[in-house]
Amino acid sequence: xxxxxxxxxxxxxxxxxxxxxxxxxxxxxxxxxxxxxxxxxxxxxxxxxxxxxxxxxxxxxxxxxxxxxxxxxxxxxxxxxxxxxxxxxxxxxxxxxxxxxxxxxxxxxxxxxxxxxxxxxxxxxxxxxxxxxxxxxxxxxxxxxxxxxxxxxxxxxxxxxxxxxxxxxxxxxxxxxxxxxxxxxxxxxxxxxxxxxxxxxxxxxxxxxxxxxxxxxxxxxxxxxxxxxxxxxxxxxxxxxxxxxxxxxxxxxxxxxxxxxxxxxxxxxxxxxxxxxxxxxxxxxxxxxxxxxxxxxxxxxxxxxxxxxxxxxxxxxxxxxxxxxxxxxxxxxxxxxxxxxxxxxxxxxxxxxxxxxxxxxxxxxxxxxxxxxxxxxxxxxxxxxxxxxxxxxxxxxxxxxxxxxxx
Length: 407
Ligand code: NAD
Description:
By secondary structure, the protein is an alpha/beta fold. It is built from 14 helices and 19 strands. The relative contact order is 0.13.
C-alpha cells in the first residue's frame, strides 16, 4: 500500500499532511510513502528530510496515478479531484458540509473519502485521530501570540525604573479547545485573563487555568456532543447586549465561538467595536467567508476601525504555525490510517461508530449519515453496507430520498 502527501493548494495554507517523523513510522510499519516534491517546504520539511525518512519524492501526476492513500490537509482543488481514481482513499479536513457536490463527485468516482470533521471526538479510541483538536489547539496558542504582537502595550505588569505598566486585560469568548489554549497562553504571557462561554461546563475549565469567568445570561447553551447549540434570536440579542457592556473594559478580545455546521454567531457588533478603546485588539478565530464573531472581520486580513481598534481575521491560524501544526496533524493521519486500513483495504463498517462517522463515501455511495441527511438521502441500514449492494441497488439507493422522492 502506497501512502502519499500532496502539496496543499489553498491560499495561505502552509501545512503538509505528513511530516518526516510519521513517514518513518509508516515505513517501519511496512507501507510505501511518496511525497509530492516541495509539499513540505512551507512547513520547513524539505524534500531531503522526507528522503532521509525513506519516502520517494514524486511529481503530483505520479502521485495521483500510483498512490492508494492520499493524505491532505484541506479539500483538494477541482483539478486534483478530477484526477482521482476509483478505490483511492483520501483523508483530510474535507469540510464535507460545505463541499457537498465534491463529496457526491468523489462517491460517483468510487473514491473513499474520510473527513476529520465528522469524528465522534468524545469516543476514547478517536482521541489520537482528533485533528480538529490538534489544529484548534495550535490556533488558540497562536491567537494569543498574534494578539500580543498586534497590541501596542506590554501584556504583563512591568515594574521598571521608568515607571510601572499595568497588565493587559484579555477576554476569550468561546472556551472550547482553541479558547482554553488561548487563555493558557495569554496567562503565560502575563495578561489578566477572563473566559466566557454559554456551556455551563466551561466555567470550571476556565477557572482551572487561573482565569476569571464572565457569566453569561445563557446558562444552558450546551448542545449535542459537547458542542454549543445555536442561540435563538432573543438569546443572540441578549448576548450582544451583555458583551457590549462588558467588552469595553478589555484591551484584547479573542473570539473562537462556533456551532458545528452553522454560521458562527456574531458576538462583537459594530457598536461594541466602536465603544472599544483605541489600540484594542480583536482576534477572530471564527472568521470565514460566511462571517465571524466580530463585525467586519475578514479572514486573513488585519483591519483598523475608525476608532483605532485592530481587528484580525484569523480563521486558519494553525496554518500560520505550519511546522507544529503539521507534526500534530500527521500523527492524526497516522492514527486514522492505522484504524481504518486493515490488510491493505479500507475496513468500512456501518456498525462502527468511528468508521461510519468519518467515512463520507465508499464503494460508489455516500455513506455518512450526516452527509446523507444534508443531501436529503435516505439513511443506510447497517445490514446493507455498500459492499453488500450490487451496483444496480447501490445506484437505486443513491437516487431515493428520505421521503421516497427521486433525489
Ligand atoms: P467549537 O470550535 O465548536 O466552539 C468553540 C467554543 O465556542 C465552544 O466552547 C462553544 O461552546 C463556544 N460557543 C459557541 N457558540 C457560542 C456563543 N454563542 N457564545 C459563547 N460561546 C459560544 O468547539 P470545540 O472547541 O471544538 O469543542 C467543544 C467542546 O467539545 C468542548 O467542551 C471540548 O472540551 C469538547 N471536546 C471534547 C473532546 C473529548 O472528549 N476528547 C474532544 C474535543 C472537544
